[in-house]
Amino acid sequence: MIAGMTYYQICLYFLLYSFLGWVVEVIFHAVHLGKIVNRGFLCGPVCPVYGFGMLAVLAAGNGVDRLLAGHASAGAVNLGTGWLFLLGMLLTTAVELVAGWALDKIFHARWWDYSDKPLNFHGYICLEFSIYWGIGVVLVVKVLHRELAEHTAQMIPQRIGWPVMAVLYAGYLFDFIVTVLSVLRMNRRLGELDDIRRKLRIPSDRLSTFVGENSLETVQKLQHAQVQATLGRQELSSALSEYSDAQMNRLRGKAGELYGKAGELYGKAGELYGKAGELGSSLNLYSEEQRQNLQKRAGELREALRANRHFGTVRLLRAFPRLRHEQFADLIEALKKADPDWKDG
Question: Are 162 and 152 spatial neighbours (Cβ–Cβ below 8 Å)?
Answer without folding.
Answer: no
